[in-house]
Amino acid sequence: MNDNDTKRLSRLTAILTQLQTKRLLTAPELAVKFSVSVRTIYRDIKALEQAGVPVFTEEGKGYRLMEGYKIPPVMFTESQANALILAEQLVLKNKDTSFIKDYLEAIDKIKAVLAHQVKDNVNLLADRTRFTQNFNNERNSNNLSDLQFALTNFYVVKIDYTNEANQTSNRLIEPFALLSTQENWLLVAWCRLRNEFRFFRLDRIKKLEMLTEKFAPHKMTLQEYFDKNH
To answer: Which part of the chain is the HTH deoR-type domain (predicted)?
Structure first.
């Protein structure tokens, strides 16, 4: 399969997903979204029809799927699923209860189609994440996704960490939980150097390496950690 075939297959899959999420889609709308010509979209729709997908054309309105047609579940990567979990934490801070209810029902449907291992991991991440609005946009980190993965898959992480006194040390840590304060993302992790749980500000992690070594999961919940240490 050449590069053009790969791109077309990817686009056909994406069009199918779009048809599943919206009741009607026009050819010009799809052409803009996928940066192709309207003629290309016509060919793509015909290819879907020839593959047995029941796409109907409503004259002057657009394309739609046959009512009741079920498309196989969309497969999320673990990183994509983790991003949804963070979005869920944001939504939970909203004061509109109906909005929260609708979103949680939607996220439950998304979780239902995840592979079992990914589902277990995102549920663990949801239990180990707390979020409050971060008002300081300058304090940032590029390590959140890697730490999420290490946390849910129990990988030891090696970091170069700079403290408040601007002193840098090398640490081997076992990620346990992620917290968001009004200023920073914080990682709760077992620090092998200090032999205890410590807080690490993500913006002070100057270098991060996920090792192949795994650690034994810590047998407590985040709430139990708070009860014990605060």
So the answer is: 8-63
Q: Phi and psi of 65, rounded to 5°?
A: -85, 155
State the SS3 of the chain. Answer: CCHHHHHHHHHHHHHHHHHHHCCCECHHHHHHHHCCCHHHHHHHHHHHHHCCCCEEEECCCEEEECCCCCCCCCCCCHHHHHHHHHHHHHHCCCCCHHHHHHHHHHHHHHHHCCCHHHHHHHHHHHHCEECCCCCCCCCCCCCHHHHHHHHHHCEEEEEEEECCCCCEEEEEEEEEEEEECCCCEEEEEEECCCCEEEEEEHHHEEEEEEEEEECCCCCCCHHHHHHHHC
The one-letter amino acid code at 34 reads: F
pTM above 0.70, yes or no: no
34-64 confidence digits (pLDDT tens): 888 999 999 999 988 888 888 888 888 889 8
pLDDT range class, residue 194, cuts 50, 70, 90 = very high
- pLDDT grade, residue 70 (50/70/90)? low
